[in-house]
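COMPLEX REQUEST
Ligand: magnesium ion
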Amino acid sequence: GLADRLQSTIQKIRGKGKINEADVKEMMREVRLALLEADVNFKVVKEFVKKVSERAVGQEVMKSLTPGQQVIKVVKEELTELMGGEQSKIAVANRPPTVIMMVGLQGAGKTTTTGKLANLLRKKYNRNPMLVAADIYRPAAIKQLETLGKQLSMPVFSLGDQVSPVEIAKQAIAKAKEDHNDYVLIDTAGRLHVDEALMDELKQIKELSSPDEIFLVVDAMTGQDAVNVAQSFNEQLGLTGVVLTKLDGDTRGGAALSIRSVTQTPIKFVGLGEKLDALEAFHPERMASRILGMGDVLSLIEKAQANVDEEKAKELEQKMRTASFTLDDFLEQLGQVKTMGPLDELLKMMPGANKMKGLNNLKIDDKQITHVEAIIQSMTKDEKIHPETINANRRKRIAKGSGTSVPEVNRLLKQFEEMKKMMKQMTGTQQKGKKKGGFK
Ligand code: GDP
Ligand code: MG
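STATUS: Structure written out below.
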């Protein structure tokens, strides 16, 4: 993902208090490459990089973030912005039925999406849709929609393949009024390429049925082509929304970025599979994360290194050196790592941890962190600094005060002791090797 590309640059600017122009420039070079690689329109990329650079340069680094994270944050915010807000609302006609035209190239997923959308309309909005088979050209297209209708137990309007799609649409709307179907979803024909005949037919259907929505269905896998398709459909028909299908596949999501900014048409839904429930509202933020490859950036190393506040880390390092690490420090550490993942995994990421034997014994269950916190909070100030003074009676009191048990208190104290031991070991190793240690 994009974040991968940013890694080395992130390493370089780590520890800085302010992000300078050169840092941003370097990161933006990676951003530009990654976006182009994700098949984002070059004009969009240019505009985007400019915007992010302006925002990122000279920013004070927030305490909770490293400079690298800060730039990533700006990038993510701008990516989200570029794709617009959440737009999953569907029009409702003043006088039913609400007519939705589904358009797009062959194989984009129109018919499937028609079924999915009908399903969503019923499930989420309690509507009663009718499906209309207006693709009379593709063999078995009518049958395909009828099969979907059967699966959904929804009416499918069809007049076979000898009546014009315009006539089919007209009669379907009349029938829907009669039968009190409040939504009419017209599944239209596609071609392999945008051509005049296709557009003419769609324009005629549009004129006659005055649709409340015209949804373009595009295959996300086609990347930049999807953007061109969206542009020509929008110019000719005036789209009200885009449905991006096949996002469950191995697509990088570049189309999502460009479609919105090139056509000014919102992406309303995304298709995430072949099944009838695999249609979701489009979340720009989620897509931004996907493009960024947040999954990657949240690798444990990054998490462990990035989330420990730089200042705190220095302080901590000092404490570890002087072995004055207390239970209070431990508690604070817990607070920092709580959101990052399994604690024992994180501890392994600590510098020097690979040299520590016995780390595997230091298993701390994430679910127990809250208990651990409660236990430490139930200790007196003095006990936290001198845990060796915590005798059996005190353990009982602490267990009671924290709503835990004596064995839990014992376990924590033992773990803390081990941790301290390891820290001494670590400090020892560092001194022997005369290396500068601590958190990076
Ligand atoms: P149409 O020609 O535009 O009507 O396209 P279809 O609805 O017939 O879909 C073409 C193929 O794409 C079918 O095999 C669908 O099952 C598949 N498809 C549609 N949407 C999705 C999706 O979101 N994810 C996946 N994996 N496949 C999809
Ligand atoms: Mg079809």
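REMARKS: The pocket of magnesium ion (ligand 2) is lined by residues 110-111, 135, 138, 141 (CB under 6 Å). The radius of gyration is 30 Å.
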